[in-house]
Amino acid sequence: QQQATAQPDPAVGAAVKAADRAHVFHSWSAQGLIDPLAVAGAEGSYFWDYDGNRYLDFSSGLVFTNIGYQHPKVVAAIQEQAGKLTTFAPAFAVESRSEAARLIAERTPGDLDKIFFTNGGAEAVENAVRMARLHTGRAKVLSAYRSYHGATAAAINLTGDPRRWPSDTASAGVVHFWAPFLYRSPFHARNETEERDRALQHLEDTIAYEGPGSIAAIILETIPGTAGIMIPPPGYLAGVREICDRYGIVFILDEVMAGFGRTGEWFAADLFDVVPDLMTFAKGVNSGYVPLGGVAISAEIAATFETRPYPGGLTYSGHPLACAAAVATINVMAEEGIVGKAADLGARVLEPGLREIAERHPSVGELRGVGAFWALELVRDRETREPLVPYNASGEANAAMAAFGAACKKSGLWPFVNMNRTHVCPPCTTSEAEAKEGLALLDAALNVADEFTV
Ligand code: PMP
PROSITE patterns, per this entry (predicted)? Predict the structure, then answer.
């Protein structure tokens, strides 16, 4: 049933790597200091290199292969679409595009029933912000410090964490605020209720001093992803919704990473019963098989552009091949109950397993997460909560995180390491046995991190 993927062959791997090093300019990297793994193939929760090494993928790529690699039904749908109509311009009604939009709108919360397609997450954020500015006639956008929204012009300025610093030449109209994070509370709160109330008061104060009439939008990741998987306290997002309504501010939820099953719901917004005005998505919409993202738009904002044109578009918006992959992915997710599988994997396997690991290792400061979306925050000292790596502009791993990451990879586990955290984000389709295998490898690798504690 499975397509033949490239077989291990060290000579081919060496050639792939040589061409890569000669000509591929990599993201987020000092080009002369990297040594990317040459990947020969992938299936389900695993991938392998040309030397025959196999890795269990606890990173889901960049947290996007929610249904795992090479799902035969999605691969077949892409092949079928390629045979029928590989590409077409955006200003036409195309079967896979209209069907993808229908399936997405059916699942998005509330009245987010119109879909603007992009090629990925950052473009979705760019367009959501433009829609909010055009809808309100206001310029400013508020976003959280501990956040990531993408690496294009507006999206990188909205990003709150140090990945913004090298590109922060002109944060035109962007104002950052602190969102709740009890473990490192910006408000010195002692419990979740205090954290929530103080965070909402801080947001209100920020709005008051920026001028409510100048603020187009507040953008938040429903659950901040690469910044650390911080689950907002109960009532926080509902409180932000209420504040937005009070001041006529557009509420944008960024579900690029948290959406499409990752949290055990179709969207993380469903966990909190909150409906934004605009919601960005990408990644899990088609498990990243073909680049696709988009903005789900409320009836009210869609109405703004009913007779007035929306002044924006992309050549490949709603690309037929990407949309065919989305249709197949969403159907597979529904047929195989993959959203429920993510919830189950989290509740039954990942949470108890990680809880046990977290307690045993002095390098683990906190465990956070839900579904197939978890983070272990590593510390030098559990008492002071001093991170295992200091923040810096380049986000480079220090010796401790590098040693931990290397230990994972050596054992056959591919981790998602960022700053002082390792994220546990396997495909939602990962079996219990695979997850347990990964947890055992993670457990062993954490012994290396423990050596760096006080
Ligand atoms: N928003 C969030 C929450 C993300 O996690 C990401 C990517 N990690 C983006 C936006 C940007 O998406 P892309 O890389 O597809 O542009």
Answer: AA_TRANSFER_CLASS_3
Asked if 54 and 203 sit in the same domain, the reply is no
pTM over 0.90: yes
Residue 362, domain extent? 10-67+337-450
> Which residue in the block uniquely carries the two structure tokens 């997460």?
369
Give per-residue pLDDT as tens, 18-59. Answer: 999 999 999 999 999 999 999 999 999 999 999 999 999 999
Q: How far apart are the CA of 447 and the centre of ligand 1, in A?
A: 31
**Nearest-angstrom CA–CA distance, 160 and 183:** 18
Domain harbouring 121, CATH code: 3.40.640.10
DSSP for 181-203, written as a single string: -GGG-TT--SSHHHHHHHHHHHH
What is the rounded distance in angstroms from the CA atom of residue 355 to the CA atom of residue 127?
39
148 C-alpha vs ligand 1 centroid, how far in Å?
7
Determine the residue of 148, 161, 252, 267 to mutate for testing ligand 1's pocket, defined as the one with the most ligand atoms within 8 A of the Cβ atom: 148
Number of domains in the chain: 2
Atom of ligand 1 nearest to the CA of 62: 8
Of the candidates 335, 367, 402, which is a domain's last residue?
Answer: 335
Mutate which of 64, 147, 254, 257 to test ligand 1's pocket (most atoms within 8 Å of Cβ)? Answer: 257
Looking up residue 361, the CATH number of its domain turns out to be 3.90.1150.10
Q: Tell me, rounded to whole angstroms, the distance of Cα 341 from its chain centroid.
A: 19
Place of tokens 């909190």: 272
Q: How far is the CA of 226 from the centre of ligand 1 (A)?
A: 9
